[in-house]
């Protein structure tokens, strides 16, 4: 069973997942592969960091279920990891950014897929977080906010064919309760 957490940069996905995992310590991460450098906010086991050459070799050999360029880096999840999750009776989670990847993930998890769109705070607060906490320059912060708006529109379109749990920007405790009620 697969819980997918989506939302724009700075929405609180990592914070929400960390709090959910405190309540459900057996909730396992599906590793994503990336060419980005590790950040202090990345969770243990969330990413396997690869060089662009290593990533390209895995991609060419057909190991990935999906790959996506996002914010100047490549991301992907291996087919074998998703197949193992699909065969499991335990909940696993993955964080992805562009929501159009959901259509590829649903092939692996079928009806055992819980989708959570973590809604961002106000645009002013999101901008502050991206600048002060993520240390992005003004142009990159504005680009990520624009990406988030496009992704929100994509989520609305996908919600017509997939069950999406919208998690409003609220206290962490309330977000956790909403997520747990769906698992």
Q: Beta-strand percentage?
A: 15-25%
Order of strands across the main sheet: 2-7-1-8-9
From the N-terminal CA to the C-terminal CA, the straight-line distance is 9 Å
Question: How much helical structure, as a percent, in the residues?
Answer: 40-55%
Q: How many strands?
A: 9
Secondary structure tally, helices: 7
Low-confidence stretches: none
Assign the structural class, choosing from mainly alpha, mainly beta, alpha/beta, alpha+beta, or little secondary structure. alpha/beta
**Would you tell me the overall average pLDDT?**
88
Shape: globular
Q: What series of H and E elements makes up the topology?
A: EHEEEHEEHEHEHHEH
Radius of gyration over C-alpha positions, nearest whole angstrom: 16 Å
Describe the sheet with the most strands.
5 strands, parallel
């Amino acid at each position: 069973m697969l819980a997918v957490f989506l939302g724009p940069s700075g929405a609180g996905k990592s914070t929400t997942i960390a709090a959910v995992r405190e309540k459900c310590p057996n909730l396992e991460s599906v590793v994503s592969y990336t060419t980005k450098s590790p950040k202090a906010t990345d969770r243990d086991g969330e990413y396997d960091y690869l060089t662009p050459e290593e990533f390209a070799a895995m991609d060419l050999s057909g190991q990935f279920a999906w790959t996506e360029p996002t914010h100047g880096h490549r991301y992907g999840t291996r087919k074998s990891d998703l197949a193992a999750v699909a065969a499991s009776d335990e909940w696993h989670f993955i964080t992805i950014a562009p929501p159009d990847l959901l259509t590829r993930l649903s092939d692996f998890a079928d009806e055992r897929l819980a989708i959570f769109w973590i809604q961002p705070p106000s645009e002013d607060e999101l901008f502050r977080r991206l600048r002060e906490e993520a240390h992005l320059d003004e142009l990159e912060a504005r680009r990520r906010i624009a990406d988030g708006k496009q992704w929100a529109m994509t989520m609305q379109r996908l919600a017509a064919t997939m069950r999406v749990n919208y998690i409003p920007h609220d206290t962490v405790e309330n977000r956790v309760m909403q997520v747990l009620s769906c698992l």
